[in-house]
Amino acid sequence: MRQYFWVLILLFASLMAHAQYDQGRKVGANTRLWRTKVESEQLYSFAVEKATSVTIRYEGILEGAYIETAGKKYALSQDEHHQGKSNSTNLLIFDASISEFSFFTGAISGEIQIIVIDAERTKRVSGVPRLNEQYAKCGEPAMVDQSIWREGLPEPSYNRSFTVTENIIIHHSATSNEVSDYTNVVRNIYLYHTQGNGWSDIGYNYLIAPDGTIFKGRDPGNGDQDAVIGAHFCGRNSTTMGVCLMGTYTNISPSDEMLESLSLLLSWKADKGGLNPFATNSHPLNTALPVIAGHRDGCSTECPGQATYGRLVEVRNTTADAIEACSEKETAMFSIYPNPASSFFKVELVGGDDHRFELYDMRGQFFKIEPQQMHDEIATFSTGHLISGVYILHYQSADELIKRRLIVSN
């Protein structure tokens, strides 16, 4: 009888705990939060009404933890953008809604918080022009507007702040590389940032999907998309613009389509803002912060993943190439070679006897430049006194003023 009594007590306690878990605490229109205690190296099962993404706040070390649902295991890593008192796992986004999952704690023990998000399925975005389709125009690339990807979700409402961009910060979202519904990814990141973290809006100015699609991020209201201050760079966001590559790129490299879109987006922004892709600027977190920088250049983080960070030199070069290709004036009679130039460059002269040259960087600063040699209608110049970067060469002949971009890579 006594044994039967204790079985009933344990069953009742289990049901009550499960009921308490199912209620949770609503922290947003689409987000619920639960608190529970766990032990290390244990597997716990949870039932939810509907979820499109899950993240877990914890204390201690994250090692060996994973979430399992629909027969698949998802390893958990630390969310390097979370700035709360506790640690947080990466946001685990699912292509299809789930109603239950299991959590293996690994080294985690003690009280945890489980944040469950339902981004509400919406139609996929299709037929969006890729950036290379607008490449010849050299203007602002095609993007998915907030009104499309945010359909049906609460809109942000706050007083925006704006800044002049001096550094462009590259991130990765640390989400699954297997997710194929990129609109769903952006919706979940938005809800995680606003309802999970309590931020005013999504943290990034732009997000780029593996297929090259660019999504507008933080809503600028009546301001400019590339000038609204986000929440992405180690708590020091002024003078920066944030671009997030959707996925995890610690060991896996971003796709060619993603990097192409990134470079073309950056070339548009750099050309618009007079930014030199090869330069550095002083920032409170780094006195020599590259104009095109990784998140890790500002604080202790792996973001944007080594496989991305290792290719930023390539990104700077292709960005500069795209700027050069969108030269203000193209003419077959005037060419610069080699371009990029490492120690010298040559100019094919236009007919006539009057040849004057001036050189400016992307901020309009003048640099004196004179031919070392002029022979057979070719002028040869040294770049030894120039730092690496993008310049505009003004060539005044007897007939016209011609401008061409010069890339110096000493």
Automatic annotation (TrEMBL):
CDD domains tied to this protein: PGRP (cd06583)
Any one Gene Ontology BP term: peptidoglycan catabolic process
Residue ranges constituting the Peptidoglycan recognition protein family domain according to the UniProt record: 141-299
Keywords linked to the UniProt accession: Signal
Single annotated GO MF: N-acetylmuramoyl-L-alanine amidase activity
N-acetylmuramoyl-L-alanine amidase domain boundaries: 153-305
Pfam families on file: Amidase_2, Por_Secre_tail
Origin superkingdom: Bacteria
Signal peptide: 1-19
PANTHER family for this protein: PEPTIDOGLYCAN RECOGNITION PROTEIN, PEPTIDOGLYCAN-RECOGNITION PROTEIN LC-RELATED
NCBIfam families: Por_Secre_tail
Family as reported in the entry's similarity comment: Belongs to the N-acetylmuramoyl-L-alanine amidase 2 family.
UniProt name for this protein: N-acetylmuramoyl-L-alanine amidase
Organism: Fulvivirga marina
